Amino acid sequence: MNPDDLADSLEELYEDAPSGYLTTRPDGTILRVNATFLAWTGLRREDLVGRRRFDELLTAGGRIYYETHYAPLLRMQGTVREIALEIVCADGGHLPVLVTSTQRQDAAGEPVAVRTVVFNASDRRRYEQELVRARNRERAARERLALLARVSKGLSEVREPVTRARRLAELVVPEFADWVAVRGMTVDESGVVELGMCPAGSDPDREITLQLRGRAGLVGSIELRRSGDRDVFEPDDRSLADDLADRTAIALDIAVALQREHGVAHDLQMSLLSGDPPRVDGVRFASGYDPAVESLEVGGDFFDAFIIRPGIVALVVGDVVGRGLQAAIAMGQLRSATRALALAGRSPSLVLEGLDRFAEATPGCQVATVVFGELDIAARRLRYACAGHPPPLLLGSDGAARYLWDGRSPPLGVTSETRPEATVAVPGGSAVLLYTDGLIEGRREHPDAALERLRSASVRAVSLEAREYVAAVMDAMSVGARATDDVCVLWAQVVDDPATNAMMSHDTDSPAPV
Amino acid sequence: MTGRGGGYEDEVSARVKNHVRESGDPGAAPLLFAHGFGCDSTMWRYVAPRFEDRFRVILFDYVGHGGAARSPYDPARYESLHGYAQDVLDISEELDLRGVTFVGHSVSAMIGALAAIAQPHRFARLVMIGPSPRYIDEQGYRGGFSREDIDGLLESLESNYLGWSSAMAPVIMGNGDRPALSDELANSFCRTDPEIARRFATATFLSDNRSDLEDVPVPTLVMQCADDVIAPREVGEYVNGRIPESRIVYLQATGHCPNLSAPSETVAALERFLEH
Q1: Using CB atoms, which residue from B36, B106, B229 is nearest to A63?
Q2: What is the DSSP letter of A484?
Q3: What was the pLDDT predicted at A265?
Q4: Which tens digits make up the pLDDT trace of A58-101?
Q5: Helices (H), chain B
Q6: Chain B residues within 8 A of A128 when measuring between CB atoms
Q7: pLDDT the model gives residue A382
Q8: DSSP string, A388-414
Q9: Cβ–Cβ of B160/A76 closer than 8 Å?
């Protein structure tokens, strides 16, 4: 075949080129258009040439794009490449195209015409739209994950069931839904937490209702709605809602369990602390207990006072590690064990050694601290031993106060050594103060400074009556301190005048029920 | 260079943040040119220089556009046109401008109106080129577009990342006007972070500032092109009719960008207005 036969005439090349050609005036008015463009679009030459501007062939959105981007760029650069637009065809359909234009200028640099090449980009555009959709899906997935993470974090930051339900509501409205209702008797007395404006009418595509299932079964339900001007819940949204419901159910479940446990622990602790101290001739008692404000869980602090044998009373203050139900149980056990050992007639050091054995075998009692004292009223003498506990404070009848630093050894269960004990004289009118470390902690200060503060607070309050005295000391120590730990105090005073002892013992300052 | 200490958006110098450039007579009355949606201050290249002999000419780019900083960019601030008006006010305050003649193209016409309403003492005159207070048709009002049309525009933006790619972004940000770079980029002007462009488009085309027009406190000139699909003649006349002290001039230029397609006619109309 003669190669010349294959050669296109320039005219044919223009008309039947594999891309559309247009020539326009600088204002876009079409001067010339090739057959390819007409075939693609179904538009007629006689309707275009001299009658329409190129931008008028575009979709409305494309027209804005043309005016705000394409035309300015062409004027400034002389050329614009690869702009994605859509031509509105004769049948109303849209033809995705890529457009490249070059501006022809006269000698003075003024534009006289624009040459435009149009590529049919249907397949490419489908592919690009796939990419855009994939990117949007990926973005949406990331946003969903972020919301889920925020909900998990938010739920863990609050404790009560109702505050957890409210937190969930605040996190999903308005980001995920326009209205939410969390229902369940465990949520609140009213049984429902609601947030947002409930859209009027019913639209199944914009509603999600899910059960909240906890470990022990149904704990409630959650309902989410979107208003009509918002997108429907897509399958991905619904699976996110499933995850949200799961996390909410677990969070409510745990919150309820914690609340229940807290109640039990609190009841147990109160029952152990509220027993009346004995009425003993010649001794006055006072006690105080302040739970930590910053923790909702009960602590493991305890005090006890009981008659070992006539004329001899036991004074005990202890502190079990940890909080909550476990700590309350351990505290109860340790308190009973102390009584059993003391009533068997053991000396303070042997009571502690017995508690060591007990602590080794009893969960939660390890590393507990205890101070145990045996007050001989007639002999005006205190035998005492301290297992890792802050030292007792002895308040003399003369108003002086000093710490009892003898008879010290490590906390329970950490030593198999023999425990030391000490004896100190307790003259008539003097008193001994036992307390847990909560009384002297909570401020940023050196332990020595805290002990000095307690000593001077005790001295200042010395003229007060038993109960007022304990209250005054506890108040003084709590000023400026963060109540991060429970505070437990036991005070015992040897009455000075034997003649009044009998009288005093009847209208006694018994330790206050706590 | 970063002004009064870094860290917070408010503390970053507006000169840097908005790529402010000054020319002309520093002692003369200020003429502040503001670009519209889609491009940057290079839009004024054929117009602004013609005023340098008589005015203190000031050009700038909105945050995220042209040579302006991409960050700090606060998406919430730029959700409405008031955020862009605040850019104008920040610049006016930092340069301590008084008696400003504000020349706003396209959406910047309304942005200038909002700035003048907020701080009338800084502005003397307002020039609105192709203004529209509301692009979407409503009962009793024809803006020229439907909500669906605007969605179509957002799609166009999605599929046209003009001269922008994440690989080029750092280069573009660091080098405002390097010619070598322009050669590499097919479309070197009007480069905008796609996310920022999308927000500007939404703020622009979904805005409704019709009720602000009657509060415009300064003498105003509306420049109306022929065959402007974005700001049709009846919209320009609506604007002219609502602003208390306004006049309108009809240009022979067609399209939406007379500052590019007919700079001489634009300059002449501006000059006539400024002579008053």
Answers
A1: B229
A2: -
A3: 75
A4: 998 899 989 988 998 898 888 888 888 999 999 999 999 999 99
A5: 14-17, 81-94, 107-118, 147-159, 169-174, 179-184, 194-205, 233-242, 258-261, 263-275
A6: 159
A7: 96
A8: SPPPPEEE-TTS-EEE---SEEPPTTS
A9: no
CB-CB: which of A53, A64, A82 is closest to B230? A64
> Considering chain B, what percentage of its residues have pLDDT values greater than 70?
84
Contact B126, B104 (CB under 8 A): yes
Torsion angle defined by CA atoms of residues A400, A403, A407 and A411, in that order, rounded to the nearest 10 degrees: 150
Identify the bridge partners of residue A222 per DSSP, sorted by sequence position.
A182, A210
Kindly state the helix (H) or strand (E) to which residue B100 belongs, with its residue range.
Answer: strand B100-105
CB A19 within 8 A of CB A95: no
Instruction: State what percent of residues in chain A have pLDDT above 90.
Output: 45
pLDDT at B75: 83
Q: What element of type H or E holds A119?
A: strand A111-120
Report the sign of the C-alpha dihedral through residues A129, A131, A135, A137, in that order.
positive
B131, two tokens: 């203004």
- Contacts with B33 (C-beta within 8 Å, 6 or more apart), sequence order: B41, B44, B47, B48, B57, B58, B59, B60, B103, B105
Does residue B231 have a pLDDT over 70? yes
- Residue B164: CB atoms within 10 A of its CB come to 18
Q: What b/e readout covers A16-35, taking b as 16+ CB neighbours within 10 angstroms?
A: eeebbbbbbbbbbbbeebbe
User: What value does the mean pLDDT take over residues B209-235?
Assistant: 95
Active site residue B159: no
pTM: 0.60
Distances (CA, A) of B41 to A53, A96, A349, B47, B162: 27, 31, 89, 11, 16
Rounded distance, CA A360 to CA B59, Å? 81
Query: Nearest C-alpha of chain B: how many angstroms from A385?
Result: 60
pLDDT, tens digit, 9 for 90 and up, residues A489-501: 999 999 886 554 4
For chain A positions 47-66, those within 8 Å of chain B (CB to CB) are: 53, 55, 59-65
- Structural domain boundaries in chain B: 9-275
Determine whether the interchain pair B187/A68 forms a contact, defined as Cβ–Cβ distance below 8 Å: no
User: Is A207 in contact with A228 (CB distance < 8 Å)?
Assistant: no
Q: What is the ipTM of this complex?
A: 0.85
Contact list, B162 vs chain A (CB under 8 Å): 69, 73, 83
Instruction: Identify the CA nearest to A364 among candidates A330, A400, A318.
Output: A330
pLDDT at A512: 40
Residues in a beta bridge with B30: B56
| Helix (H/G/I), strand (E/B), else coil: A160 | coil
- What per-residue confidence (pLDDT) applies to A499? 52
Ranges of chain A with pLDDT below 50: 500-514
- List own/partner pairs for A99-105 with CB under 8 A and 24 or more apart: A99/A70, A101/A70, A101/A74, A102/A78, A103/A26, A103/A74, A103/A75, A103/A78, A103/A79, A105/A78
Pairing of strands A20-24, A111-120: antiparallel
Residue B171 predicted with pLDDT over 70: no
**Which amino acid is residue A198, in one-letter code?**
C
B138 phi, psi to nearest 5 deg:
-145, 170
Q: Which of B134, B125, B105 is nearest to B253 (CA)?
A: B105
| Separation of alpha carbons A381 and A425, rounded Å | 5
A473: which 2 tokens?
């000391």
Domains identified in chain A and CATH numbers = 3-120 (3.30.450.20), 136-265 (3.30.450.40), 275-504 (3.60.40.10)
Does residue A76 sit at the B interface (CB-CB below 8 Å)?
yes
- Which residue among A67, A73, A132 places its CB closest to the CB of B158? A132
CATH of domain B9-275: 3.40.50.1820
* CB pairs < 8 Å spanning A and B: 105
Is residue B128 within a helix (H) or strand (E), and if so which, with residue range?
strand B123-129
Is the CB of residue A369 less than 8 Å from the CB of residue A434?
Answer: no
